[in-house]
Structure formats: C-alpha cells, structure tokens
C-alpha cells in the first residue's frame, strides 16, 4: 500500500519520534555493565547487545533476554521490586531510575523531521497513534511537547493494564488500529527496532516503514520492513506525490 493512501499512521516513540532511544541506550549500558560484572561476565556490554536483545521490547523482557544471552538467569521478581534487587524486575527498575534521572536533567526534543511528518498528517486529518513498549511513553510525550497530538496512545502501561502481549507480538499495534477504527491492511506502522518491525509485519499492516537509527537497513528489511528511511521527513514527499 502506498504511504499516501494510508487511513492511519501508527508510530513507535523512542527512536522514531524522539531521540530517547539514545537515553535508553545510555541507561541500559550503565546498568548492564555493572550487572554483568557483578555476575563475573568479562565480556563488555555493547550497542549490539541493545539492538539484539533489548530494543523495542517490554523492559523486563529485555532484561531477561540480555542476561540469558550471557548465561545468567535471575528470578523474575515483582514489578515493585526495589532497584537494588537482583531480580529481572529489580534490574529493569534500576534502569528506569537512571533513565528518569537523565530525562529530568537533560529533557528531550522530537526529531525535527518526525515532528514535520506528524504536523503534516494532522493537517491532512490522518488519524495517528503512538504504540510504544515503554512505560515512560506518556512522560516522554509530555517532555517533548508531543502530548495531545495523537488520537490514541498504546504503551507499556496500557499493555500491563489490559494484558496485551508486547512486541514482537503484533497485539499492541492491532489494539491501536482497532481504537482508530482502521483495518491493519489500511494502516502504516513506523518503527526503528527489529522487534517492532517484526510485530508490524506479523500484524498484516499495509506498509511497514523503518527509520534507520543505527540498526542498519539490511536487518530492518530482513525483519519485514517494506521501506527504510533515514529521516521521517522523507515520507512527506511520498505523501504529497501520492506515492
């Protein structure tokens, strides 16, 4: 389906609309470097680990996947575990505390090209949604000035409250499309993470657009992306040209 013919556009948040993926990466690196060392793993944590095991997934799932890749198995724990707890939830909560501190100190602004595309779609009356695994999605939207610009938000909090499986399952995107009253095959998904692209592809969406923020076009196409761009402003030309 051509981008210009879409009845709705569903956006991931971190790395797609805002550069908070970079903040997440810094926070994860700080936490995982110490956690791996505490368990005697001499191999350094890297950005490749982030993209392979953490990017786009619900927070605790990412913790579990990364640690298991190093042969480390922690008890899952509970979502209200203290950040000091040596559980999957504790490690995830530790990371969230670091992320919140960075966000509060440094703030965040949307990618200029992404903001242009959102404004373009709103001006054309195209329904939009944010679909993010992050439980920090709404604070990030508020901090970046994007709150209130989307017709619906399906985030990590929504997923927990409503029992919606996280990415790479397609359910969060399917819920957002249903809330917009749009069939998946008539909607576009915009993602930057392999797990998110896989989710959109599995959901049967009409067009899966990947913005390459470091994963690499080949990996995104292999995961199911139909189109890969470097900046979302590129899609405005497609929209105006009817492509």
Automatic annotation (TrEMBL):
This is Haloacid dehalogenase. SUPFAM superfamilies: HAD-like (SSF56784). The lineage of its organism: Bacteria, Bacillati, Actinomycetota, Actinomycetes, Micrococcales. It comes from the Bacteria. GO terms for molecular function: sugar-phosphatase activity. InterPro entries: B-phosphoglucomutase_hydrolase (IPR010976), HAD-like_sf (IPR036412), HAD-like_SPP (IPR051806), HAD-SF_hydro_IA (IPR006439), HAD_sf (IPR023214), PGP-like_dom2 (IPR023198). It comes from Amnibacterium flavum. Belongs to the HAD-like hydrolase superfamily. CbbY/CbbZ/Gph/YieH family.
């Amino acid at each position: 389906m051509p981008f210009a013919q879409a009845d709705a556009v569903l956006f991931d948040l971190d790395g797609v609309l805002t550069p908070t993926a970079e903040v997440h990466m810094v926070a994860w690196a700080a936490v995982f470097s110490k956690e791996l060392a505490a368990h005697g793993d001499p191999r350094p944590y890297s950005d490749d680990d982030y993209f392979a095991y953490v990017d786009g997934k619900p927070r605790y799932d990412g913790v579990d996947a990364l640690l298991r890749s190093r042969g480390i198995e922690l008890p899952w724990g509970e979502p209200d575990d203290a950040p000091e707890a040596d559980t999957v939830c504790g490690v995830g909560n530790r990371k969230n505390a670091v992320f919140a501190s960075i966000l509060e100190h440094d703030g965040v602004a949307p990618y200029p090209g992404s903001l242009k595309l959102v404004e373009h779609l709103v001006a054309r009356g195209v329904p939009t949604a944010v679909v993010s695994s992050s439980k920090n999605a709404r604070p990030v939207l508020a901090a970046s000035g994007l709150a209130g610009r989307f017709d619906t938000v399906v985030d990590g909090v929504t997923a927990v409250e409503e029992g919606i499986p996280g990415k790479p399952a397609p359910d969060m995107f399917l819920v957002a499309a249903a809330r917009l009253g749009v069939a998946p095959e008539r909607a576009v998904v915009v993602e930057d993470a392999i797990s998110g692209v896989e989710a959109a592809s599995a959901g049967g969406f009409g067009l899966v657009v990947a913005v390459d923020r470091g994963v690499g076009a080949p990996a995104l196409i292999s995961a199911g992306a139909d189109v890969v761009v470097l900046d979302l402003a590129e899609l405005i030309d497609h929209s105006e040209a009817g492509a």
